[in-house]
Amino acid sequence: MSVLIIAEAGVNHNGDFNLAKKLIDMAKECGADAIKFQTFKAYESTGVFAEKAQYQKENVEIQESQLEMIEKLELPFEDFKRLKEYCNEKGIIFVSTPDGLESLDFLISLCIPFIKIGSTEVSNIEFLKAIGKTGKEVVLSTGMSTLGEVEKAIDVINSTGNQNIKIMHCTTDYPTAVEDVNLKAMVTMREAFKVPVGLSDHTMGNEAAIAAVALGAEFIEKHITLDRNMEGPDHKASMPKKEFKAYVKAIRDTEILLGDGIKKPTKREKMIMQNVRRSIVAAMDIEEGTILSRELLSYKRPGYGIDPEMGEYVIGRKIKRSVVKDELILWQDI
Question: Which residue numbers delimit the AFP-like domain (predicted)?
């Protein structure tokens, strides 16, 4: 099964429908399987007294509250309906993260393939129950969480009768420093909860995704942007087109590198084998009619003669023709 690559557009459209369409175009051109947005009504998730998170303060220098910032990034529900239609035209999966019950109900009406739960909602029990009751497949992002908190979130969703859960390892920091990625935690969650796992990657390079795929990630999410210099909280930790295209290629190449797990020679190795493996050859000139002993045999290249492991079946037999030193001894010769 191929790794599902999700281009995280998030709020990098900056509240502009046409920029959102361009992000869809970019994701498709770069080879992503899906593109994900964030659907919300700002007042549902953020109060007037909420300050911006540390990374938001660092990435957006404007002095404003978190609510004021988020309000500028909000798209009307109708725009998301049009974006999903555009994704259908382009042949890329449309997904979006709901940040409240209104946005959840709206996204369900769009028949999205799964519900992505943001890391901020891991402890939002009522919201988790509402999501579980939809019966949709759930992908739970786990940034800022302990293993116990993830377990509780899974239990809450399961309590609704929804057992279709996947876990996305995540570090909620934009960008994430290499030392904070902790990919082994992804493996820990897979083993602890017996569910498929993936990575929401906020690092600046390709290495985390490559390592995650090697460790068994079934889906990878990565923020994309049209330009890192655009105003907004996530642009600086997102990938522009050229980098994201290379990112997708790195993941696909890693899948190819991992192969099918069956240990066998490749087609080219089978060709090379004839030249570099060893065969039974004459250790010295041997006259016709000689009974072959171990001392008369050697094992040298090329490899298209009798395999050395068959030596015991050659020793003690009479050779039917004269051979010179290093000449292959073939089955028809004995």
Answer: 279-334
Task: Tell me the backbone φ, ψ of residue 116, rounded to 5 degrees.
Answer: -95, 120
Q: Residue 220, Cβ neighbours under 10 Å: how many?
A: 26
Residue 287 and residue 142 share a domain: no
* pLDDT tens for each residue of 268-286: 999 999 999 999 999 999 9
- Estimate to the nearest angstrom the gap between the alpha carbon of 272 and the chain centroid: 33
Domain that holds residue 280: 267-333
18-47 pLDDT, tens digit per residue, is 999 999 999 999 999 999 999 998 777 787
How confident is the model at residue 61, as a pLDDT? 61
101-153, pLDDT tens digit by residue?
999 999 999 999 999 999 999 999 999 999 999 999 999 999 999 999 999 99
- Alpha carbon distance 29, 206 (integer Å): 18
Q: Last residue of a domain, which of 258, 283, 313?
A: 258
> What is d(CA 226, CA 249) in angstroms, rounded to the nearest whole number?
19
How is 223-268 classified by DSSP, letter by letter? EB-S-TTSSSSSGGGSB-HHHHHHHHHHHHHHHHHH--S-----HH
Which CATH number is 299's domain given?
Answer: 3.90.1210.10
**Kindly report the CA angle at 124 between 119 and 137, in degrees rounded to 5?**
65
Q: Are strands 219-223 and 197-201 parallel, antiparallel or unpaired?
A: parallel
Residues 68 and 116 in one domain: yes
146 in the same domain as 278: no
Strands (E), 66-172: 93-98, 114-117, 137-141, 165-170
Is there a contact between 242 and 276 (Cβ–Cβ < 8 Å)?
A: no
Same domain, 234 and 100: yes
- Dist. CA 9–CA 73, nearest whole Å: 12
Q: Which of 211, 238, 258 is the last residue of a domain?
A: 258
Handedness of CA 240, 119, 251, 254 (dihedral sign): positive
